[in-house]
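Researcher: Structure prediction, please.
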Amino acid sequence: MTESIRKFRESLNSRQGSLGPFMITSDAALVEAAALAGYDFVLLDMEHGPGTYENLQNLIRAAEVHNVMTVVRVPRGTDIMIDRALDVGAGAVLIPQIDNAEQARKAIAAAKFSPRGNRGVCRYVRAAQYGSMNTAEYFEQANDTMVILQAEGKTAFDNLDEILSVEGIDILFIGPYNLSGSLGLIGQVNHPTVISYIKEIIKKAGEKNVMVGTFADNVETAVKWRDMGVKFIGYSCDMGLFYNAAKKDVDAFHINK
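Model: Predicted structure follows.
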């Protein structure tokens, strides 16, 4: 197990849980800045961000400089991207739009080498130090990388018991915005109906001993979910964090001029 994964698991199991920003940046400097700020992980978003596969490895390198865990959200329905993200050194993959147990099993299998899965085998990738790493050690270590499944809509909720019974889920991630949309309340993530669904997911996951993650727009929301047992908080987004900090300063400057 790599040091960054070990530290990440420790943060998940701590009282305070684990906090890290979604990042759509293509600039490794912002990843380094996030690591220096003290986040427990960075969540590199290949689903909604403009980044390329070639650039992804450089963002991962930037996180590794500071020994910070990298979670890569892959585009939906792309097993090959799970493979490629892990090949360039991702510590975990976040796989979106999981609606049933069969999709969950396939996603986990795509992220694990045999006999635990069917991930494509190549020992000359970056994660294996381009072939310089002991082969047996690499394949054993690679299967320690983590799988986070994003079960985020009403269909997933209706199939939740079956999904939670699938072996190999490290974290079940609740996407409140997609959940709100599937409930006909798009964007209303604080609507009582949306909140009640999230609470029920947390409860059911706890009964199955599956760790839960979710998204929070602000610190107050992050603390609220943490206090309810959520251990993995995807926090805001790098561009949103920059905009909000910049806007606050600009507004203060204009008020005082």
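Model: The first helix runs from residue 3 to 12.
Researcher: Thanks, that helps.
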